[in-house]
Every structure is written in structure tokens, then in C-alpha cells.
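Batch manifest, entry 17 of 40.
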Amino acid sequence: MEYTNSQILEAIGEHIHSDRDRSILARRLIDGITIERLGEEFSLSPRQIKNIVYKNEEILFRKLHKDCP
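Output type: C-alpha cells
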């Protein structure tokens, strides 16, 4: 299923509780920023960024899938 940017942003705001994680996930999913660039922006290693993105994508898309008819 495809989701609009506004649906993704709304779900990020509702289901991701960390401000930092919300920002990282939005920059990755909406803006398409690379893992390496996000690491530079947030002063984290690429591995840390990947872990944050993957963990929160799982939460986010599980919630989105559950909420869709």
C-alpha cells in the first residue's frame, strides 16, 4: 500500500515519541536524505541512524497497516 507524505508525517507525529527519532524518520522518508547525510546532520554514526530508521519504520508501518481499512 502506498501512503501520502501527509499520512506518513501524521503517523510519525502520533506514534514516534522521540523528537530526534521523529526528525530523523521524516528526513529519511519524506525528504529522502541518505543515511550518511543524516549521520552528519545528527552527529551519529551511519549504523546508529540505520538502527533508528529501521526500528521506527517497523513501528510506523505496523501502525499504518493496522489503521487502514
